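Deliverable D4.2, example record:
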Amino acid sequence: MKTTSAIILFMSLVGLLLAAPAPEPVQPIPSNSQLAWQRLEMTTFFHFGVNTFTDREWGDGKEDPAIFNPSALDTRQWVRTAKNYGSGLMILTAKHHDGFCLWPSKYTDHCVKRSTWKDGKGDVVREFTDACRAENVKVGLYLSPWDRHEQCYGTDEYNTYFKNQLTELLTNYGKIDEVWFDGACGEGPNGKKQVYDFESYYTVIRKLQPDAVIAIMGPDVRWVGNESGVARPGESSVQKRGDKTVWHPAECDVSIRPGWFYHATQDNKVKTLEHLLDIYFKSVGRNSVLLINLPPDRRGLIADPDVARLKEFRSALDEIFKTNLATGKAVSADNVRGKAKEFSAAMVVDGKLDTCWATDDGATTGRLEIDLGEPREFNLVNIQEPIELGERVRKYRIEVERDGKWQKLVKGSVIGHRNLLGLPKITARKVALVIEDAHGAPAVSEFGIYLSSIEIETSGGSLTASKPCEASNVHAMGTSYGGDKAIDDDVQTRWATSDETRACWLEVDLLKEETFARMFISELDPRIAKFELQIKSKKEDAWKVAYKGRKAGKNFNTKFNPVTARYVRLDILEATGAPTIWEFQLFPPKQ
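Output generated by the structure prediction step:
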């Protein structure tokens, strides 16, 4: 008996000696709230208010509150619909730009207490937050800083007004997990524009809801830069803010319909399953969180077409990720931290984000190999880092062994919380993740391999698709018609200009120098009479004309001699009416 105890004690001491400390975090790292938020991967917006009943996108603050009267409001139906497709956090537009409040605010009469709904005794925010908690999901609230109704907007007094409303929302409705506001700013009813005191807004939020993340005009979550739901390849959560480097992950917002509020005319324009999947792989699959907007209708329900599409979306994701071919398979690594079991290569196929393979200190490269046991067909790779230790990998590639030789399939830069890499279908027995460069010792939580029955597009599309852009003019209805709508690969959304506009431009940053030789333009109606495609390689360079054209129309498609540039501009010189464009696309020479 004593001998057995001595052996157990000896083995325990050996285990302690062989154990290795975790790698030192690479700064910056996420806060606990940011980490929880990123691991949600998908969240949901609900745009609901007087615009729902006026059939507008942006209200003007002159609406009669009496028009707000949903006949069958059921916020549990909203939350269940979103939860069922995989969303873990719900955000309600408690107040949009029109200033109408979905709760009985004591600071304004432009709210539900003056509506006919429930004789003015209703509270949508209360019903919404109660529904979220009943369904065990996180709660978010949107409060628009721009208020087109409030008379004091444009004065210092308005900042106090805004903080008073923030205080109402953050003290009367329990725990709030995300506070969302944008930087929209226009003239108020007094003809003045507001200077927002964001720092004082943050102070109120930190005091009343210290665990809430603040998005997107905030320090915790940033806007990805478009409303197409698409992040850039290599999207990083590490950003420069002045002379500091901070953790500031990206949120990709997109509406399931062309508009953000419900319009019956858009019931047949719900995004297709293929489009939603494309958005998923270009947001969640690019180290970002996807925020899908579901606009409740005038009944106060998510409309049937939206519900049906989201069921298809969930079923498709379940099918894609049903079987990880790497689970339980042999994994080897060229370096294991301290030769410790807790950092072995096997950790990347255990299905857990709180375990990882890691290398010894001093290493900035590493190699993982998975042996599938027999040749298997696949077309999708999933890689995840333990981001609580920071963003570490800077450059990597995926290889397969075929005929005794290793062959490179695809390469990447940032991994972060998650990178999803679609591939042409390929058959191989051995697959490798090769980390070519990293900040500190490489660490990987998951390395998965899948065969998707749904083709995942990773390349070959328009070079302009979802790249940063700027338009010289946008219609007064705002971001629903922003320049990004002309480069979102969605033929149901468009860039629109103000009614009086006859000349304008759209600039796109391709992010790096690209070579292209074909252009496609699709107008709402044939209005463009004269235009140029202009290019330059550096921001400070002068524009050069690559192509001159007349009369674009609904399907303008032309080839030209190949040119190379990073920045491109569609310069509309003359038009017979306000230019309105569905898509502006550029393609490489062979496409």
